[in-house]
Amino acid sequence: MAQYVINRSQFINPYNFVPVDLKNTKRSNAVERTEERMTGYFQCRLRCRTPLAIPDTEHSEEVKGLRSPEERGPHYKYPFFSVNDRPVIPGSAVRGVIRSVYETITDSCFGSVQGNPSITARSSRAFQPGLLVREQSGWKLYQAKKYLVVVDRGFYNQRSLKEIGITYYEDLSSRYKTGAEVCFEPAVDRSGKEISYVKERNGKRILIGPYVKRLQADSSDRAVQKGYICIGEKSPRRHFQGVFQKGAPAPNVRITEAEFQRLEDVLEEYRDERKNKLYPGAHKGYPDYAYAKKSGVIPVYYSVEKGKLYMTFAALGRKAYDRRWNDIVSAKSHDKCGSRTRLCPACTLFGTAEGDKFGSRVRFTDAEYTGNMENGLNSRGVTFGELGSPRPSYLPFYLRELGANTDYSAGYDSNQMEIRGRKFYWHHVPDTDRRVPRNNRNATFETVRENAEFRFRIYFDGITKRQLELLAMAVHLDENDLGGHMCHKIGHGKPLGYGSVKICIEKCMVRTFNSADGWKENPQEIPCGVACHTCGDKTLRALKTICDFDALKRYGEVRVEYPEILLDERFENKRKRLKDNVLASHGWFTQNYRLGSKAPKQKLPEIVSSDLGLKKYTATNITNRDMRNN
What we know:
The protein is built from 11 helices and 33 strands. The chain is an alpha+beta fold.
């Protein structure tokens, strides 16, 4: 198989994290109103520094006539969001990025994170088979022995398993449900010893498991054994499904509601269609789970790591960490606000839907395009490279070590590591001329061009002077100049360089009332250059660095891009015949941090680091096993 070596070629990861460096975010009683309050609005202008994509997801159209085998469909094109046929940036899109900056400069809670999500990751080691069995005292976990049921015709023919009487089951899922009890006969040799599948990997022989010779729903034959069907996700390379035979109780394991919740958190991850697009229709999220739970026997895979139980649905599957998002951020006293009498600065201004809820004191209008339609809109569209969902499970990027010799294996449950902070994207100019093959995992987007301008308002109601200053700073990033370089990121394609915008405040109007004139709007000086942040200097420096459109110019030709695998030039003539996985981008992550390793080869540099570059990996030593015709 291919080998991978570190390469001198560098890249800069598209995102990084502004650290949260204060231990306690300040909370206050939002109901109390002791200071003078102001009501009015900011009139704002937005200018695109790079092309901007705001997709109208309700009016997509399928692109027909794809031109090459690489361009697998269906592939969709999304028009730019518009009202009355004119481009518009929804107020919610602007509000989201402004709130994110406001949370950062005020050291507020992580209110932008919806709900209290769990965090899952692929385990650092293989799980062992088990059976969750419902008993009178509650659910109990038993060890299990796994037998292999052959479901792949190619594997069946290649190994000549018919010679030992093994039956091939083309579609086991059409005959049984996961958790169903079955009778089976193991395959044995002449001496009565079970015949197992042994796989060779890197010169080592690995025992995968014994074969099932014959399978049936019931039997009166006492020689036939009993077990429970376990049907995993479909895959082009799945050779087997399984039968789990109940063994002894798992030692030192107690099943609580929390353990069940973590198992179902993993189930939700597998059911997320946004993350399972490679084989359409194959990933169905274990639809038999409800049946198995109702029948009282759930085949699972489990491991006990440092006294904690983790359960999942595959031998090399995902696990849900014990700590959820709020548990993790609460370690820095940044858990989400839930009471009106204890709100962080951001929730006091923008409101919160958590707990007893609190209404927002700001409202963002839609940003309306002010330019010429013919010159501003790229109606032909741009096909973006494949964009993945956030992967907080990749520990070397999302977690920071607290000391030396940190063991990564415990991940988010470790007391040696903490979250890096709030995620932001680097500004850079996108490669708009790059041709990207179209498939069902990417899309084409209409964009508005560089220098296109929009106008919008931010209305505020009953806020303090301090809040006004902080809001202004979050909008213009302490540089109220439309030609400035302190920018936000808005819309789709941020990792590719799209969506860099500069926002400035054109005017600030505050309403006042007197008995002679009634309500009147009065212009106010626009706050800028006011040292009003309440976050630490380390946080502010990192924020201003990653928001600087020119911050990466010193790196010259080093590209901002996701990690990738290069091909040794000696094997360039084999590129078109290589299996997809040989050069797949996810291979970089695997090579950089292998399952079971205590530490990665490369960690994500800090925003203010003198060297932001990461090195690529090169695939070399290509063999026939790496070719598609093998």
